[in-house]
Amino acid sequence: MYYLRLFFTLLILSTMSISSAWAEDTVELPLTKQSAADIIQVESKGKILSVDKDNADKKVIFLIKVLHKDGKVKIYKLDALTGLPPK
After folding, report:
1. What pTM was estimated for this model as a whole?
2. Segments forming the whole domain that contains residue 66
3. Is residue 14 part of a domain?
4. What is the C-alpha to C-alpha distance for residues 13 and 26, in angstroms, rounded to an integer?
5. Is residue 84 domain-resident?
């Protein structure tokens, strides 16, 4: 499951970089609350409910709460420095 999410996150980031070359809208690292929410919104296709910043093991981690179409709420985590889910 971790590798599948990692693959899709990298795919989204690479797609955003390619499309941003035309739109001049890139995702820069470290992530901000807004860029973390944008990545997860594209990945999950759900509604972003909240974005919280947490400091874990000397890393900044964003916790993004998403409401999915089936009514389930899921919390996604992204490392601000890498843009990937933390290990």
Report:
1. 0.71
2. 2-79
3. yes
4. 9
5. no
Residue 51 domain-assigned (yes or no)? yes
86 prior amide bond cis, ω within 30:
no
Q: Is the pLDDT of residue 5 over 90?
A: no
Q: What is the residue type of 35?
A: S
Q: Is the pLDDT of residue 48 over 90?
A: yes
Domain with residue 47: its CATH number is 3.10.450
Neighbours of 55 (CB within 10 A): 9
Residue 23 has pLDDT above 70, yes or no: no
What is the pLDDT, as a whole number, of residue 3? 65
Q: In whole angstroms, what is the distance from residue 12 CA to residue 67 CA?
A: 20
Mean pLDDT in residue range 61-75? 97
Q: Domain count of the chain?
A: 1
Q: Over the Cα atoms of the chain, what is R_g?
A: 13
